[in-house]
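Q: what does this look like with shikimate-3-phosphate bound?
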Amino acid sequence: MMSTISEKSQGLQGKITVAGDKSVSHRALILGALASGTTEISGLLTADDVMNTAKAVQAFGARVVFDADGRCFVTGVETLSEPDAVLDMGNAGTATRLLAGLVATRPMTCFFTGDPSLRSRPMKRIAEPLSLFGATLTTREGGRLPMCVHGAENPLPVKYRLPVASAQVKSAVLLAGLNVEGETIVEEPVLSRDHTERMLKAFGANVRFEALAGGGRKIILKGKAKLTAQKVVVPADISSAAFPIVAALIVPNSRLIIENVGVNPLRTGILTALKQMGADVALQNERVVSGEPIADVAVRSCVLKGARIDASLVPSMIDEYPVLAIACAFAHGQSRLCGLAELKVKESDRFQGILDGLKANGVNAFAQGDDIIVDGCGGAVAGGGVIETRLDHRMAMAFAVMGMAAQKAVTLDDTAAISTSFPDFIGLMNKIGAKIS
Ligand code: S3P
């Protein structure tokens, strides 16, 4: 394990493109594997998590090839074959849960494992709805991997109301429903990212929606539709763009444009929260590509003020809290980030990690129930702390961002996990003025 140091930058300047969207990349590979014909994916994220999905769909019988320009071609199979070895999904929680959904309604038995981070994450949230189809999911104690999914021989359609806002659980149920006669219905009282629904429609699945009282919606999927290969253009990942966005806000003399960022309204909570804090961030050149809204994000350094970030924003910025907490540390005044229970079951316990990391760098932060309160330092964060990144890419990148503007450098014990979502993060940030070594 080699430690990495992020030191104060004099300003971040440039026009950059960040890594492809991880959520969209997983889904493009999975639907491509199910569709008849060859799906052409441009902009696929070629990071560890997505490569694990690519390996997995090959284990189910699909063909995946890349050309010299980095385009990915997935040729689907009519009947998925049973993988003849355990699928090691590395750090990829989304892929594990989505693929478990795929297996749940097919006559096969499939074994999943992962790295120590993934092996500590809860799978009961998918085991419950997938067993309603007739599948059997066997896990270790605590609902953890390794996990065996024994698909149902004669699956039944399911009606399921999500107990937590989770796009992974929703998507697992919808992917299971694809192979079942009849209508599979998912009710989500609180909306979560809808990339699966958008892409299912594009590939020819029969999906419709009904509004639920209180702002949620019902997703109705008619199973056994024939999916047809598509051309998919993957937008840049707003969850990766969030790091240079916050970096540019807190490092004085910064001005960045981040191109082709996916701005699906169910993903842009970070922009809403930052604007609430007074951020100078704007969308330019908004358009729709492959059924997903995209835009260039223009951002300039400015004075941030503390804010109360409501729990209703959690689903649309679930992965952005580590870096939002960094913005709060540099703001003037106190911030309250509400309703963060789900942060405890991410790649690491981000709830505790945020508190520990802020404190280690001289920022007063504390918990009240499921809320995190951060006392902003008004631009003058001490820094100087050492962060244990615990196989969590986003914790590593968030605290690297802190180091770019703190008085003393921030040390990260290990940055290997960054390769799960944004392999070029350090190189790209250094190119525009960061000092990470
Ligand atoms: C994801 C959904 C979110 C998010 C994860 C990606 C997806 O997880 O945190 O990084 O692609 O569906 P939950 O469904 O657990 O909220």
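The longest strand covers residues 280-289. The longest helix spans residues 22-34.
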